[in-house]
Amino acid sequence: MTASPSPEPTPIPPAYAGRWVALVKGQVVAQGQTREAAFLAARAVRPKEPLDVVYMPETLPIFHTPLMLSLRQSLPADQPIFLVGGAVRDAALAREDVHDLDFAVPKGALAFARKLADKLSAAFYPLDEENDTARLVIIHPDGSRDVLDFAGFRGESLDDDLRGRDFTINAVALDLHSGEVHDPLGGLADLRAKRLRACAETSLSDDPVRILRAIRQAAAFGLSIDPATRQQIKSAASGLPSVSAERLRDEILKILAGPQPDTALRALDMLKILPHILPELEAMKGVNQSPPHVQDVWSHTLSVLRHLEAILDLLGPQYNEQKSNADVYNGLLVMKLGRYRAQLAEHLSQKLNTDRPLRALLFLAALYHDVEKPSTRTVEESGRIRFFGHDDKGAQTVLRRAIALRLSNDEMDRVKTIIADHMRVHLHSDHQRKEHTISRRAIYRFFRDTGAAGVDIVVLSLADLRATYEHTLPQEIWAAELDACRALLEAYWETPEQVVRPPQLLNGDDLIKELGMTPGREIGQLLEAIRENQAEGHISNREEALAFARGWLQGHKGVKK
Questions:
Q1: CA-to-CA distance for 499 and 450, rounded, in angstroms?
Q2: Does the structure show a pLDDT above 60 at 477?
Q3: Full-model pTM
Q4: pLDDT tens digits for 258-268?
Q5: Beta bridge partners of 24
């Protein structure tokens, strides 16, 4: 009987944790509470084959994954290495599909990662030579990838490193050799108690961006912030303006893209954080609106975030019958728009920047869609409150905030367009109109002006309507809005060449050659008129386009025939 010091060649299921197992060529053939019991049980079924008997420590399931096994097989026996941070926390929560992993080694992380890259056939990236950090990226045959970051201890020891982190739930380490869990600050107990607690009294003042991380993780994991940590947040908030715009941007967008963004924003408001990061939002508080609005502008905005999250969940890739049947509004939503689950998921998975999902921009636009209602508020003699121009002015305000947050030009254009046009679907869905169907011309113009952002506007309009009425929403108004949204999405995804982007039948040179026009603005106007009539179905070929152009010219005085 031998006790193998080398790692097992195949993953051993976590069900064997805390027991001795006997292996033949890496496969479990027997188990027992003692080494002797496992050995004797194995000999009864495999009397002649060489055995390895090893103890499976009680550890986190992630220790037994193929990736962890591959790493252990590639490690020198004398190289201390620990999985740390969010991957350990997520493993403790039994979360699957953890592909971003952080590792800590005593020192020499760059050199160690470079050698490990060769063994794992991974791409190597030095991240920060001064702080001894590097990244490996492993791309699998199915296109998925694992990102492994390596860093030297921040301190003299592993405990020093863990105590210097942000919150106790992130200050847990897993020994890659033994599977032993190091938890000097009781992070796993905090996780079980659903408590978010700072690692040290100066954790947040040392790095104020951790304030936003606290709010995000509390919302993401359903945690209550420890009272002492809450006090730290209030004390450290004044340091947020000194944080780089890029770091603020990343945390804000993670909050918006994560679960319960409305809850997170309420927490930021309650803790007096918003004036330090998104100061434009303060003016919305207490600004009353006329019916059918049932809330002031700020409360309405938070409700839009809540409804937007719920709508995207209902229209997500996985159909949830229980949620769909929760009320008549959900049922109608799924009935009319559920066919576009896959297209919507693909749309939201797109990225205008490699590091930021489109979903985050949609929620940023939702947060700012009514930001200029306070400045445009007027009260008519009848007492009705109006907000003329709040959409256009709001688009300029969000653009300024987007610039301050260092968003890319494409991201700026997207949020600006969403806010500038966020009222258009409502105008097309007026249930009191005699004709409820949106014309093909109107659909063409909508997507001509909004492009891909039109899809975001459609979804935002639904959340905006739900938040406007809340429980007072008449079913016929909701149905009319859904019909308008369905017509827009149907055209965008099912008949784009007929309605949204008709093929060009003529160009400017054709008009000059065939009709004797001279270069100028009229050529652009005529080409656009042709495309609109294509979208309406009145023009389908070049000959019809030329005939329309001749008639158009005859109706415009002063234009050369």
A1: 14
A2: yes
A3: 0.84
A4: 999 999 999 99
A5: 27
